[in-house]
Every structure is written in C-alpha cells, then in structure tokens.
Amino acid sequence: MKVLTIVGARPQFIKAWPVGRALARHGVEEHLVHTGQHYDALMSQVFFDEMGIRRPDWNLEVGSDSHGAQTGRMLMALERVMVEERPDWVLVYGDTNSTLAGALAACKLEIPIAHVESGLRSFNRSMPEEHNRVLTDHCSELLMCPTQTAVENLAREGVTRGVHLVGDVMYDAVLHFGVMARERSRILETAQVEEGGYYLATIHRAYNTDDPLRLRALLESLELLDAPVILPIHPRTRSRLADRFPSATFADVRLIDPVGYLDMLRLEQGAKAIVTDSGGVQKEAFCFGVPCFTMRPETEWIETVASGWNTLVGETGGESALAALVTAWRRPVGSPPPLFGAGDAADQIAALLAGVGHGGG
Ligand code: UD1
Ligand code: UDP
Predict the structure, then answer these.
(1) pLDDT confidence of 356, banded at 50, 70, 90?
(2) Cα distance between residue 32 and residue 99, in whole Å
(3) Which atom of ligand 2 is nearest to the CA of 261?
(4) Does pLDDT of 360 surpass 60?
(5) Domains assigned to the chain
(6) Residue 120's closest CA among 170, 181, 194?
(7) Is the dihedral of CA 15, 16, 17, 23 positive or negative?
(8) What confidence tier does 304 reach under pLDDT thresholds 50, 70, 90?
(9) Nearest ligand, CA of residue 296?
(10) What is the mean pLDDT of the chain?
C-alpha cells in the first residue's frame, strides 16, 4: 500500500504530521510531495525541522503566481510525479491550490483521492478556498470529515459514499505539541509580553488583505484594543502593506515575522484573546479555551461560534466594532466542549487508508 501525500502550504505541513506518523504505525508506505506553494523558511522549513516531518521526496518548487498559473504548474508537475510513483492513494489536505492540483492530477489518472478536512463550507463562493474544497470533495473517494457539520454539508451536495467522521487532525497535533510549546517556547520573553497581557492576531485571507482600505481598517481596529497586539505577519499581508502603506505604523500592534509552530501555540495559549481570519488559529484558540474574534463574515467552523468561544466580526460598526465585541464578550460556562474528536483522527485516517475498517460511510 503506497500513499502519495501532497502538501504545499503552512497548515498542510502541520496536518500532515500526525497522519504521517499514523500511516507509519499502520505499515503504510508514504511518499511526500511539497508543491512549493509556500517556500520562505518561516512558512515551510521551520515546520519540517521543529515537528520532525520527514524531508519531502519531491519538491516541485512551484512558488507564487496567479491562481491559474500556480495551480496549472502544480498540475503538470504532479501528473509527472504520480505517473512515476504509481501510488494506491493520493492524500490531500484542506482547501489550498495545492489541494486542488493534487486532486485534479490524481482524478485524471484515475488514482483514488483521500481528502482530509473534507466537507467544510463557508458558502461564500468569492473565497478561492471554497472552490478548492467543493471540487476536491466531488472527486474524492475517501472523505475524512472533522465535524458532523462537514458530514451534513456533503450530504446536502449528494455526497454520502466514502464519507467518514474522524475528528480533526489539527486537534491531534495540538494535543501533542501544546504541552511541548508550554515547556519549551521562550516566545513570551522574546516578545516581552506577559501571560494574559496581550492579544494575538493573524491576517492573511484575500478578503482582508486585497482591499487596502479594509486591511488598514482592520489594523486600526487592533489599535483600539486595551493591550499590545502581537501580529506574526503572513508574507501576503506584509507585501500588501508594503505596496499600499509602506510607512504606516499602528500603535502597539507589533508586527513580527511568522513564527514556528511551538512559538505560535505558546502565543495562543498565553493570549488574552485572539483576533484572526485563519481557519487553523480559530480551532487552536478553541482548543486552548482562549476567546477568538474572527475577522470574517462567516466561518467553516460554525460549532466554535455556536459554543460561544468564537465571535464573528462582520462589516458593520467600523474600527471600534472589534474592541466593543471584545469588551462585551462573556466566558461561556465550563470548558470548550469536545468538538474535534478524541485526538485519534490521524489514526482513523491511517486505518481507513490501510484498508482496516474500510466499507464504512
Ligand atoms: C494560501 C491558501 C489559503 C491558506 C494559506 C495558509 C490558496 C488559494 N490559499 O494562502 O487557503 O489559508 O495559504 O497560510 O491556496 N508568499 C511569500 N512567501 C511564501 C508564500 C507566500 O512571500 O513562502 C507571498 C507571495 O507574495 C504570494 C502571497 O504570499 O503571492 C500569497 O501566497 P499563496 O500561497 O498564493 O496564498 P496564501 O495567501 O498564502
Ligand atoms: N501558524 C504558525 N505560525 C504563524 C502563524 C500560524 O505556526 O506565524 C500556524 C497556526 O498555529 C496554525 C496554522 O499555522 O496551526 C494556520 O495556518 P494559516 O493561518 O496560515 O492557514 P489556515 O489555517 O487559515 O488555512
């Protein structure tokens, strides 16, 4: 049994870690392809080094470009790799252009596709990720869903065969690395902040970065918070700021380079609250019981909102809306409920791929 795993963007390295370990435990041979969608050391290599992810067998070095050019170059290169590797399964993660290219290349070669984080929907077709998810799900044979909502989303689209509710592999990773982060990371000292005395923010969605006025308003809304804001800045956001507001500064919003996974988890654990548009960061905030404010009109992780731990910050209310929502937030009773499985999502995925327990769904 041979699985060809396709990764390319930061969250996919993190998701691939627990699954890679579980595949090895189940005796499944895994070959790893890095498309090169993310390539800066702090967006890629740092995760391989820190998490001990094995070196990719292939690095396609596709780099950045428009959606069509980037996805097209990946598709061509992936087809060549798949023809040479002849895997039993192609394994893809999430909703990036690397995910879609992997799924398209495999389906044209009639190689079965397994999709981790299947069934998520924002129902917002202006998001590039929404197209990537829907298209990937509709050509996958094994659809591994992190939540019951994801299973229901697929059913509404008529997809029920090969669907498995397994939990979230990012939760598996948080359980393992969360403890390590608390013990080993020195990021609070480096950033000169105290536990509970700062906000953590991340911004990278096209929706928030590509409209300069929106991006500036978002940063101005962070300025109004009542404690320093640590913002590890995604290269996309840095480049948009450099283009449009090269000399802008935002009072006590501290822009730092992207950080490694352990430092990021530590920053999340210690934050007073988290402001983000990241999918992964919303879930991690929830897992650590840290209030999250999501700078989007909708989220794929609606359970986190329903539980009271995540608040959507929409368009209305201007710059002061975020500060008002942060002030008004009331801690839900008890700890966050177990939304993302039992920490064995990766094992369930590996078992499905290895053929053990196949036939469900
Ligand atoms: C991509 C995914 C998004 C995911 C995010 C995770 C798509 C369509 N989007 O968005 O779903 O949430 O990754 O972080 O696949 N850049 C660098 N160095 C890098 C990588 C990117 O400078 O190592 C800059 C380039 O200017 C590039 C821009 O960031 O044009 C955007 O990168 P890209 O990979 O196209 O999309 P992301 O915004 O990272
Ligand atoms: N992350 C990180 N360093 C950072 C920012 C994020 O390690 O500077 C981690 C974060 O903890 C989460 C993942 O990257 O596990 C989320 O990736 P991202 O926000 O880029 O993408 P998304 O989840 O929105 O697709």
Answers:
(1) low
(2) 13
(3) 7
(4) no
(5) 2-168+341-356 (3.40.50.2000), 179-328 (3.40.50.2000)
(6) 170
(7) positive
(8) very high
(9) 2
(10) 96
